[in-house]
Specification:
With 190 residues, the protein is α+β, with helices and mostly antiparallel strands. It has a domain of 113 residues: Jelly Rolls. The chain is 48% helix and 23% strand. The protein is built from eight helices and eight strands, in the order ααββββββαββααααα. The longest helix is centred in the last third of the chain and has 25 residues. The chain starts with a helix and ends with a helix.
Length: 190
């Protein structure tokens, strides 16, 4: 709980009553490697804050999974589109390590927004950051080469390189694992 409170208090000030409210509305959940936090076709009913572990966001297509993002410690995990509209998700969120999270329901999030003085500001700033990351990711898919996308991954996720299987990184970059191996070899020679 202290990681979550620390994260929130790095964005807004909270008094003791507000911190106690946060503790009462976030519930701990644990998932094992390979578990789905959200499967395509289900409604996302919670936002999670990752205490430990890594998840992938993916779109399932026939026999292939297309990774489009990762979630790690001290980040929120959710399909916000499904969560906000209460409609079935077109995406999946899956654990690639054992994951420990603190989760909040939609109704409890509304209580948090109403009862924490700067709760609305907290939600807005987190949403803005997620929007900027998603926008940059989409732009990168259309404008960057696979090597540029890999360099971007290394720059922003260097702490994950040993924790995420290469085939998932390749999927995220939108190339085959063999192509990623060639990129890595070229980069080592430079």
């Amino acid at each position: 709980m202290e990681k979550l409170l620390g994260y929130m208090m790095s964005i807004i000030d909270m008094n003791e009553r507000e911190r106690q409210l946060v503790k009462s509305v976030f519930k701990p959940k644990n998932y094992e490697q390979g578990d789905y936090i959200l499967e395509e076709g289900r409604i996302c009913k919670e936002i999670g804050f990752i205490i430990q572990g890594i998840v992938i966001y993916s779109i399932e297509e026939k026999d292939e999974s297309h990774v489009y993002s990762f979630g790690k410690e001290n980040e929120f995990v959710c399909n916000y589109e499904s969560f906000l509209t209460k409609t079935p998700s077109s995406k999946s969120i899956k654990c690639i390590e054992n994951v420990e999270m603190l989760c909040i329901s939609y109704d409890n999030l509304q209580i948090l927004y109403d009862e924490v003085v700067h709760g609305q500001k907290l939600g807005r700033l987190i949403s803005e950051q997620l929007f900027l990351e998603a926008s940059a990711n989409i732009t990168s898919f259309y404008t960057d080469s696979p090597e540029q996308r890999y360099k971007h991954f290394l720059h922003f996720h260097s702490d994950l390189i040993q924790r995420i299987p290469q085939y998932l990184i390749a999927s995220y970059i939108k190339i085959k694992p063999q192509s990623l191996s060639r990129i890595r070899k070229r980069m080592l020679k430079k």
